Amino acid sequence: MAQKLSKADGKKLRKTFRQFFGHLCCKITDPVEIAAELQKKGVISISVMKDMIMSPESQHAKTINLVGALDKKIKSHPDRLFLFIEALLESSTPQLQEAGREMSRKAGEVCPDREVCKVPNSP
Predict the structure, then answer these.
(1) Which position has the higher pLDDT, 118 or 31?
(2) 48 within a domain of the structure (yes/no)
(3) Three-class SS of residue 32?
(4) What CDD domains does this protein map onto (predicted)?
């Protein structure tokens, strides 16, 4: 059986993601633009994307909602974080590509072996 990502490492990975992603949305670009890239890669559903576009909420509120939705996915499937990173790296926006490289480096510090992250934490 493959080695599991420890609960502590899983939490650290998610905390790193939340801090980094919140910074990314607030400082670099519109969360709807990021959501569009993630939807293309299948990281989030089209309904999440539509909700974000139609929402009258502020950019900050949209960021919080997107981070929350992604965090739930990563909690149950840590390897989704790598899909998220790939979506950023393959983006046509230079800022998102740079953000993807930075997030990849940070995730690598916590979980150097991506295969370990593929094993869900919860039974």
Answers:
(1) 31
(2) yes
(3) helix
(4) CARD
